[in-house]
Amino acid sequence: MADTAEAVKKTVEKTAAAATAQAEKVQAAGAKAFREGLDRTTASLSELNAEGKQNLDAMVASAAAAQKGAESLGQQALAYGKTSWESGVAAAQSMAKARSVQELIELQTSYTKSALETYLAEMSKASDVFTASVKDSFKPINERVTATVEKFQAAR
Asked: What's the chain's Rg over C-alpha atoms?
């Protein structure tokens, strides 16, 4: 019976040692998998943070371009208003000096034609400035969208 007890004791010790070794392997594998997952998560968060910063920079650049366009349009409108006022005053003074109704009508017709041509040219310039402003303000955002789409397509 002593031999049997000794054999059982040795079997239990071997089984315990094997179980301990297996538990250590499982623990090491779990720790390694956890570390790798944590590293991947940290890298993904860093990349996401970088993307967010680039998106914010694009929005700031877009807003700056839009503001620049608005300022340009404002300055252009102010300059046109001043020029229009001055030419209107000059036309009124000229019309006040007219010696006949015929001359007054000719001066008024000439002024109206000139004012309309100037207005149409000014609106064309304003349209060009506005179009360029919109194009410039959307450029940084379009670049970010393109970069993001390319990144998603590369990840496929």
From this structure: 40
